[in-house]
Design goal:
Number of helices: 2
Radius of gyration: 27 Å
Order of helices and strands: HEEEEEEEEH
CATH architecture of the domain at 41-161: Beta Barrel
Distance between the termini: 106 Å
Shape: globular
Helix content: 10-25%
Largest sheet: 8 strands, antiparallel, barrel
């Protein structure tokens, strides 16, 4: 009698199972990752000073820096580009505010999650440089505090991430009812 040898059956994953397995593995990893992996980041484009300027925050070596990339009013009263006219260094007073690095040296705060400190912010409207710290307020808002000496002696401003401003505000005429 002849014995038939049975070949082992090789099972293959169907072509869609591998990508699905990779996706599910990544999803599980993200769901169990420490919160710092999912934390909001200050990197990106921000409306500063109530929308008067846009500042791009980026990584500069091992710190964060920010430069002015857009101005609502880029021209001075003379019709010339707005210059850094209040700079304490007379040699720098003719440089354009557009492109100016105004934020630098911020590093993550070891003790406070979502905060950066140790940096400076330059205010071209008065030519002064202040110590600063930054705190994320959700994914699309940041609180930037400029101060002299200690944070108690300073001012906080809220910056909004460009592209996340929300729906347009209702006009004042549309919100008022017409008399009958």
């Amino acid at each position: 009698m002849q014995h038939e040898q049975q070949q082992p059956v090789l099972r293959r994953c169907s072509p869609w199972k591998k990508p699905l397995l990779v996706f599910l593995s990544l999803a599980a990893l993200l769901c169990t990752s420490p919160s710092w992996l999912l934390a909001a980041t200050p990197l990106g484009l921000w409306y500063a000073e109530g929308g008067a300027a846009q500042v791009e925050i980026s990584q500069c070596e091992h710190t964060l820096c920010g430069r002015v990339v857009w101005l609502r009013s880029p021209l001075a009263g003379t019709g010339c580009p707005l210059q850094d006219q209040h700079n304490p260094d007379p040699a720098l007073r003719r440089r354009s505010v557009l492109g100016l690095v105004v934020l630098q040296g911020l590093t993550p705060d070891d003790h406070l999650h979502g905060e950066w400190s140790g940096g400076t912010i330059y205010d071209p409207s008065n030519g002064k440089t202040y110590a600063c710290r930054l705190r994320m307020d959700g994914d699309h808002r940041l609180q930037l505090r400029g101060y002299v000496g200690v944070p108690l002696l300073g001012r906080t401003t809220t910056w909004i991430r460009v592209g996340t401003e929300g729906p347009p505000c209702p006009s004042s005429s549309a919100s008022q009812e017409e008399p009958q």
